[in-house]
Amino acid sequence: MQVKIIPYKSYLVFLQKYFVMEQQTKGIKIVHVHFLHGHKNYYFGSVSAIFRKFSADDIGISEIRLRHQLTNDGNHYINKKVVIIRSRLIR
Length: 91
Description:
There is one protein chain. The radius of gyration is 19 Å and the shape is elongated. It is 41% helix and 26% strand. It is an alpha+beta fold. A hairpin with a 4-residue loop joins strand 1 and strand 2.
């Protein structure tokens, strides 16, 4: 088997295109927060963004605990105040 040597610049271009395509096919992570009282919906790009807008008392869970709860797409958290779902935005 012969190894093909490519220039470093070409390799970087390949990596950039690969990661852009991978991100487009995977979609962008979305964290949907639905408040049960008042029926308001908010959409965030991360768990930490939720806690920049709301306190742990507003949500009913700490940031660290919510991070552990929402480790994978499709995971959710439900309590008396909110329903929080992690998913992907498909473009």
